[in-house]
Design a protein that fits this description.
16 helices; two-stranded parallel sheet; single chain; mainly alpha
């Protein structure tokens, strides 16, 4: 991904548009990544492209490779291995043991639900992370707007799958049909939809009020929300959970690769990086083709055997869940910009513009 600085597009005077990487990189990879999700909707629902083709293209090409991205700045980094040894290797041991133990106790269904819910929460947290980066960059940190942004994003991303899988059709997740909350609580679905609509109207009204008051609108934040929120509502309205997984996650994967590449280029590009962090992360950060090639090889080596072995053995399924679970846990620990000075520097947040 290119990180050459370009002039910012023309923005109205009462708008703020400070970017994480560059205008072009952010618009293509962070905000524009939602177009990949809409493309998946189009390919599957309109062109009837077989779901299995879309799944494998996403799984090997994007999802497995983004786990490699995490490894590139943790297990491959000599300094990270030294300073975070307990976190890194302790999480490996715990999560690669957790899956087989849950299978051994007969909890395979609950393991699958754990992985699914945590994966979706992981996607939500990343969108929130980018939201916060745009808020920091654009000095959009009023306490009321902080709470409103967090609440709006959370509500708008939780409501679509909750309505589909817990209010209407729990059987899609392998749960008893009798657990459908819509049947247990008549009128629940229209009440939830009305609440979501009212919240969206209030949020839009707040942005309009800010504009009328002469306060600059945070353009990157609003573009991010405009791309992600409708995608999640459309996906869970029209797709099963199996089709929904790659559709919403490919957006997350593209955003993650963009952030990893930007971080790694900054962190491992200095003269002392090889001595401090080791040759491997420096080599990967020096060449986009090299990063992509190694990431694809890593993904193929575990995704393909993991899929086939997981279908043959429940224990193997439990073991291979360890890749995702370890990634979700580590990712929540290694992107804490408030606590990590080196991370702030690598993300260009050392001094907010």
């Amino acid at each position: 991904m290119a990180t050459v600085s370009l002039p910012a597009p023309a923005i109205p005077a009462r708008a703020s548009a400070r970017w994480i990487i560059t205008p072009r990189a952010d618009l293509v990879w962070v905000i524009g990544s939602s177009l990949a999700g809409y493309l998946y909707l189009f390919l599957n629902l309109v062109l009837q492209v077989p779901f299995t083709w879309l799944w494998w293209f996403w799984s090997v090409g994007f999802d497995g490779t983004h786990i490699f991205g995490t490894a590139s700045r943790t297990f491959f980094d000599r300094q990270a291995r030294s300073e975070r040894r307990l976190l890194l290797f302790g999480s490996l041991l715990f999560f690669f043991s957790l899956g087989p133990l849950m299978v051994w106790f007969g909890w395979k269904l609950w393991l699958a639900i754990l992985v699914g819910i945590w994966a979706y929460y992981h996607v939500m947290r990343q969108h929130y992370g980018f939201l916060m980066l745009y808020k920091i960059k654009n000095r959009d940190l009023a306490p009321l707007d902080n709470r409103l942004d967090r609440g709006f994003l959370t509500a708008m991303l939780i409501a679509p799958p909750f309505l589909r899988f817990f209010v209407r059709s729990p059987e899609e997740l392998g749960l008893p049909r009798e657990m459908a909350l819509g049947a247990l609580v008549p009128g629940l679905e229209p009440a939830l939809l009305a609440c979501a609509g009212a919240f969206a109207a209030f949020y839009i009204g707040r942005q309009a009020a800010q504009a009328r008051a002469g306060r600059p609108l945070n353009v990157p934040k609003l573009l991010l929300l405009a791309g992600v929120v409708p995608l999640h509502w459309a996906t869970f309205a029209w797709m099963s959970w199996k089709a929904a997984v790659p559709t919403v996650t490919i957006v997350h994967n593209l955003q993650y690769h963009a952030l990893i590449w930007f971080h790694n280029r900054n962190r491992y590009g200095g003269e002392r990086a090889a001595a401090r962090n080791g040759r491997l992360p420096v080599t990967l950060a020096a060449s986009l083709a090299g990063y992509v090639g190694f990431a694809l090889l890593f993904s193929l080596l575990y995704r393909v055997p993991g899929f086939h072995l997981g279908r043959m053995s429940d224990m193997a399924f439990g073991f291979f869940c360890g890749f995702g679970l370890t990634h979700y846990y580590l990712d929540a620990r290694i992107w804490r910009v408030r606590e990590d000075h080196d991370l702030r520097q690598a993300l260009g947040l050392g001094t907010s513009p």
